[in-house]
Design brief:
By secondary structure, the protein is of the alpha/beta class. It has 2 domains: about 170 residues, Rossmann fold (3-Layer(aba) Sandwich), CATH 3.40.50; about 180 residues, Dehydroquinate synthase-like, alpha domain (Up-down Bundle), CATH 1.20.1090. The chain is built from 13 helices and 11 strands. Strands 1-2-9-6-5-3-4 form a 7-stranded mixed beta sheet, sandwiched between helices. Strands 7-8 form a two-stranded antiparallel sheet. Helix 6 runs parallel beside helix 10 and helix 9 packs across helix 10. It binds nicotinamide-adenine-dinucleotide and zinc ion. Zinc ion (ZN) binds next to helix 10.
Length: about 350
């Protein structure tokens, strides 16, 4: 078992990572609550809900099951959960538990942030990607005009990460989570990056997996502690995301996972970094790693102009100027404003390059 403390402006919270942690949730609660409502989705419900409920035997426990998928992070479901919380009589001394991936974590956190002006919540992540979403206190739901547009900064009371639950993830979801871990390595740690280049993500020991999650969370935690509200260095966590958001939105959500799109976005950010700063980055090793792990590459159905248009609506771009996170070297991220002409030329080349891989 590994633990880590994260500081936030509201309160500090502990992250516990280990095998079988879901069976120890009761012990890890730092105080007693009048009632608890577990929020999960219909896939995780059949796998892990019973285990978690059984550990909370002596408590008044309610559950709320969402359908799975990104589309469920909606205002409609947000309102339904609030209604259930009121009907179940949750008071200000009640707790919400998010049992699931980033979707469940984000919507539960936003309900917790606003129910009776804020009640406690804890994250019990069940995806690799959720090592990222469960730490840092960003909680949100989607608006039909854009992802995560309605939200808050509201940290959990604790994060309880049971790595055994990650065994049932599909390979695509494993790839999705590992793209965020490798992103964290790119922005801060060459040795960690080289270690990751050697691994096949469908074939990891528990020890490797928990080490990688721990390191990824440590990198994220250090950054969010220094810049909780994303006024400067928290932006660096968006390496690869300017293009990936455009890819996801152009392909239609669900075609490839978020992290698979990020993995492609990172190659593009590395290419642009090499040109801008006249440096060499380990792009070939990274592409080899992506191939070994079956990441998708083909973007040939996407049009450069449409991607550029979408990149302009990225939260980082100001006055329609696209800003990307680039690397001056491994572990030295920075942000750069880039012209449309330059990006159009590079993106055309990049889409051709991807086709040839
Ligand atoms: N708040 C943040 O800082 C932050 C950061 C990154 C991402 N996010 C958000 O996270 C979301 C993506 O999270 P995600 O990738 O975890 O997606 P997700 O929650 O949709 O989970 C992916 C799929 O895996 C299934 N699943 C979850 N756990 C499983 C398990 N243990 N075994 C088998 N199947 C399982 C789910 O039912 C779902 O179908 C996005 O909405 C994104 O905006 C938030
Ligand atoms: Zn991401």
């Amino acid at each position: 078992m590994k633990t880590l403390k994260v500081k936030s402006s509201l309160h500090d919270y502990k992250i516990t990572i280990g095998s079988g942690m879901r069976f120890h949730t009761q012990k890890l609660l730092s105080k007693s609550y009048t009632s608890i409502m577990i929020i999960t989705d219909d896939v995780i419900e059949s796998l892990y809900l019973k285990d978690l409920k059984n550990t909370l035997k002596d408590q008044k426990v309610f559950t709320y099951v969402l359908p799975n998928g990104e589309a469920e992070k909606s205002i409609d479901n947000y309102y339904k959960i609030q209604t259930k919380a009121i009907e179940n009589g949750l008071d200000r001394n009640s707790l919400l538990i998010a049992l699931g991936g980033g979707v469940v974590g984000d919507i539960t956190g936003f309900v917790a942030a606003t129910y009776m002006r804020g009640i406690d919540f804890i994250q019990v992540p069940t995806t690799i990607l959720a090592h990222d979403s469960s730490v840092g206190g960003k909680v949100a739901i989607n608006h039909e005009l854009g992802k995560n547009l309605i939200g808050a900064f509201y940290p959990p009371q604790a994060v309880i990460y049971d790595i055994d639950t990650l065994k049932t993830l599909s390979d695509a979801e494993k790839r999705s989570g590992y793209a965020e871990i490798i992103k964290e390595a790119f922005i801060s740690d060459l040795a960690f990056l080289n270690e990751l280049f050697s691994i096949n993500i469908t074939n990891l020991t528990n020890e490797q997996l928990s080490n990688h999650l721990y390191k990824g969370i440590q990198i994220k935690a250090e950054i969010v502690e220094a810049d909780e509200k994303e006024s400067n260095i928290r932006k660096h966590l968006n390496l690869g995301h300017t293009l990936s958001h455009a890819i996801e939105s152009e392909l239609g959500y669900g075609k490839i996972t978020h992290g698979e799109a990020v993995a492609i976005g990172i190659i593009f950010a590395l290419r642009i970094s090499e040109i801008k700063y006249n440096i060499d980055l380990p792009i070939n090793s990274y592409i080899d790693w992506m191939k070994m792990n079956n990441y998708p590459f083909d973007l040939s159905e996407l049009k450069t102009e449409k991607l550029i248009h979408k990149m302009k609506s990225d939260k980082k771009s100001k006055n329609q100027v696209i800003q990307m996170v680039l690397l001056k070297e491994i572990g030295k991220p920075t942000t750069e404003d880039l012209s449309d002409d330059f990006l159009t030329e590079q993106l055309n080349k990049f889409i051709k390059e991807l086709k040839s891989l």
